[in-house]
Amino acid sequence: MGHNCCSKQKIKKGLWSPEEDEKLLNHINTFGHGSWSSVPKLAGLQRCGKSCRLRWINYLRPDLKRGPFSEIEERTIVDVHRILGNKWAQIAKHLPGRTDNEVKNFWNSCIKKKLIAQGFDPNTHNLLPSFKANNNNNNNIYACNMFSPSSFFSVNSSHVSADTSIDILEAPYLTLPSTSSPHTNHVDISLHECSTISTYEFQVQEQINPNVLTESMGINSVPTISTSHLYPISELENIVNESFQPITKSTNPKDILQSQQEEACEVVENEKPSVLNGAQTNIDASFGSSNFDLDFMECTELPCGMYNYQLSPMDQLTWNG
DNA sequence: AACGGAGACAACCGCTCTGAG
DNA sequence: TCTCAGAGCGGTTGTCTCCGT
């Protein structure tokens, strides 16, 4: 199919010469681009309007930031991608001076490989099967799906017997337990949301409503929820079995992600105030040190973000260059 | 020095969306 | 409501550079 403008006339393709760049730049600086289809003719270029537009957006625009991506930008890309998928234009909106094309290239050439190297599926951000298999041999780390497809449930190893093995790999959401328990032979339980950036630690309280948690993340924020609860080790397996219940309606990753996004959107609309206040929920969220980007949340239809850079398991992984 | 592979980046292609008529 | 052109987006391909052999 292609675009008609190129087939109608003799159009140059391939890399742009400095002279062409100068012509386009001068024209747009003087007249603006107006209708892109008319730009080539007015600027004296043997290019199609589409090509001119692309050249301007990806290369000539004065507000572009050139050079390598910073670590923060990498984190941002990974985190937003985890929620939105290959929505490069949307992702790029959260990276001032970067274009969708640039983000896309960076993802394909760099981040994707890093994620794979760390055992994550770059499409779903879930653990790769081989990586899961390895973790199944580790009794102290359990992976599950929460809002993010890639999450870790970890148990303090100093308290857990070697035969405590609960496979909750396929649980798409985390449901907090509603039962209270006697406080003997306690172990500490913490829940670490394991993306490349995020760590969640949920506090389980006595009368907690067993609502599905769909707390999500934001960009450039360092909010923390430092929480813990004590359970008797004898009940650990029961607690986990009760607490991590798959409620997925589809095993298709796309369906799961979509439903998660829709649910996240509902949380934004309905529960953001209560989550932020911590008054009507049993989660005590602290945003004291956060520069959480609410614009981002609204724009990407996400609920409030809660994660901690320092504690993220993925942060402890090395990004092989 | 020549060659080939890998990586990074630029640009194109094909499709969808949107707004005007 | 339909059609069409323009704009925008994501996937893919092309090109260049670097590096190892």
Automatic annotation (TrEMBL):
<protein>
    <recommendedName>
        <fullName>MYB domain class transcription factor</fullName>
    </recommendedName>
</protein>
<dbReference type="InterPro" id="IPR017930">
    <property type="entry name" value="Myb_dom"/>
</dbReference>
<feature type="domain" description="Myb-like">
    <location>
        <begin position="61"/>
        <end position="111"/>
    </location>
</feature>
<dbReference type="GO" id="GO:0003677">
    <property type="term" value="F:DNA binding"/>
</dbReference>
<dbReference type="InterPro" id="IPR009057">
    <property type="entry name" value="Homeodomain-like_sf"/>
</dbReference>
<dbReference type="InterPro" id="IPR001005">
    <property type="entry name" value="SANT/Myb"/>
</dbReference>
<keyword id="KW-0238">DNA-binding</keyword>
<keyword id="KW-0804">Transcription</keyword>
<feature type="domain" description="HTH myb-type">
    <location>
        <begin position="61"/>
        <end position="115"/>
    </location>
</feature>
<dbReference type="Pfam" id="PF00249">
    <property type="entry name" value="Myb_DNA-binding"/>
</dbReference>
<dbReference type="GO" id="GO:0005634">
    <property type="term" value="C:nucleus"/>
</dbReference>
<keyword id="KW-0677">Repeat</keyword>
<feature type="domain" description="Myb-like">
    <location>
        <begin position="8"/>
        <end position="60"/>
    </location>
</feature>
<keyword id="KW-0539">Nucleus</keyword>
<keyword id="KW-0805">Transcription regulation</keyword>
<dbReference type="InterPro" id="IPR051953">
    <property type="entry name" value="Plant_SW-associated_TFs"/>
</dbReference>
<feature type="domain" description="HTH myb-type">
    <location>
        <begin position="8"/>
        <end position="60"/>
    </location>
</feature>
